[in-house]
Amino acid sequence: MTSNETVGNTRWHIKNVRILDPFTATDAMGDVFIVDGRFAAGPVQGMTVIEGQGLWAVPRMTDIHVHFREPGQEHKEDLLSGSRAAAAGGFTVVAAMPNTSPVIDSAALVAWERNRAREIGLVELWPMGAVTKGSAGQELAELGLMEEAGAMGFSDDGKPVANARMMRSALSYVSMLGHPIVQHAEDLSLSEGTVMHEGAISHQLGLSGAPAAAESVMVWRDVELSILTSGPLHVAHVTAIGSLEALEYAARRGAPVTAEATPHHLLLTDSAVSDWNSSPISKVNPPLRPTTHRAALRQAVASGLVSVIASDHAPHHMDEKAAPFPQAPYGISGLETSVGAVFTALLHSGLMDPLTLLARMTVGPHRALRAHYPGLVQGAAADLTLIDPHASWIVDSRAFYSQGHNTPMDGMQLKGRAVGTMLRGVWTMREGQVLA
Ligand SMILES: [Zn+2]
Fold first, then answer.
1. Which one from 63, 157, 312, 388 is the annotated catalytic residue?
2. pLDDT tens-digit profile of 47-75?
3. Is 409 helix (H, G, I), strand (E, B) or coil?
4. What's the pTM value of the predicted model, to 2 decimals?
5. Centre of ligand 1 from the C-alpha of residue 14, in Å
6. Separation of 186 CA from ligand 1 center, angstroms?
7. Which parts of the chain register pLDDT below 50?
8. Beta partners for 21?
9. Could you read off the pLDDT of 68-115 as tens digits, one per residue?
């Protein structure tokens, strides 16, 4: 990317770029014009020209599953460092999970979080509200009031809504609201005390594993409850073959069910645990699975059965991640490797074409959360990411903008990277440097 910019310029002309806009099903070479925060139809006076040769221009890259840890655990991440990580990774919209301290379970907290992110101004943040008060699973939170305050969905993520009657109530409630319940599907009675996937590698390493069924039995239950209530359900981070079968069943029954897959489950397998000598750097929930599950998950993303890719960005302090495997917290810092991991696993492997793949990171997340955006069209807010699809790079977690440097992708070679991120016509990242 070359440029000759004037400081403060709000008029941009990106030349000779491949426009990939899943919102309008456009894949064409062309120019992109931005005037005062919005896409424009053509050139006007005073535009700064950017050469887009070799790059892709993608509107509204969206990640609907991140943990920004504020309030309460700012030593892991806060709204500023999380926003910077999002911009660095090429994202203009994120949905932040409510398992902070306190839990985001009231309209006031939802409004506070959204306003704080707006002050920072690096990413559009969609708050998720808790399903139950304090995510304690006992009493339904004020879903309607949180939605009025800007909540885009509801989740007790980090843990499941374990009680089926509670889940039924929550789904009944959101059938009248519109935004979905986002379930972390895990039967805790099957997974309690386990630290990875139960299989050949857990046996080899002597670590206690949970069966894939710990996830899929909960997905089957929730699909049935979505059918029963007509309540919109979004299944977070699916990984197991059985869960995918439940999603197929939901689709056949016409249930309002969507699901997401993470870049790490699409790229890695449970052999990462042995590759890292049982270091908890690869400890994540749900756990990394063997190749059979990964292959099925990749196919499901390709077919659209899983219509969303989301990072489950879960930053932790390295001291916490350095604990012994059983005690270390779950999670991978994922915003800054998402594009590279997904392109490496799904695009450069030849499994998916660019427009279909990018739909999983743009229009898919919008549909899952019932959000609307017109795409790269005249007058729309200029949320745009420039991607170099062929950039080969080695992950160096020390260079992350996130405070979380915990990733088993450290040292891996990935292909594909965001090189520019623009939020409402303002660059938040250029050539790897987060601005402001
Ligand atoms: Zn989760």
1. 312
2. 999 999 999 999 999 999 999 999 999 99
3. coil
4. 0.96
5. 38
6. 9
7. 1-7
8. 26
9. 999 999 999 999 999 999 999 999 999 999 999 999 999 999 999 999
Radius of gyration of the chain (CA): 21
Could you tell me the distance, in angstroms and rounded to a whole number, from the CA of residue 59 to the centre of ligand 1?
A: 27
Identify the residue whose tokens are 């350095």: 322
- The Å distance, Cα 34 to ligand 1 centre, comes to 37
Of the candidates 221, 220, 224, 197, the one whose C-alpha atom is nearest the C-alpha of residue 208 is: 197
Q: Based on the residue annotation, tell me whether 312 is a catalytic residue of this protein.
A: yes
The residue extents of the domains of the chain are 11-57+381-434, 59-368
**Secondary structure class of 264 (helix, strand, coil):** helix
Q: Which residues of 383-394 are buried (b: 16+ CB within 10 A; e: fewer)?
A: bbbbbbbebeee
DSSP annotation of 13 reads E
Give the Å distance between the CA of 366 and the centre of ligand 1. 19
Residues flanking ion ligand 1, Cβ below 5 Å: 157, 184
CB 381 within 8 A of CB 92: no
> Alpha-carbon distance 52 to 55, whole Å?
5
Q: Which fold has domain 59-368?
A: TIM Barrel (3.20.20)
Q: Measure the CA angle with vertex 123, ends 121 and 362; round to 5°.
A: 155
Domain 11-57+381-434, CATH class in plain words: mainly beta
Q: Residue 9: its pLDDT value, please?
A: 72
The tokens for 306 are 């899983």
- 237 CA to centre of ligand 1 in angstroms: 7
SS3 399: helix
Look at residue 6 in the predicted model and tell me its pLDDT.
46
Q: Which residue has the tokens 């699973």?
A: 137
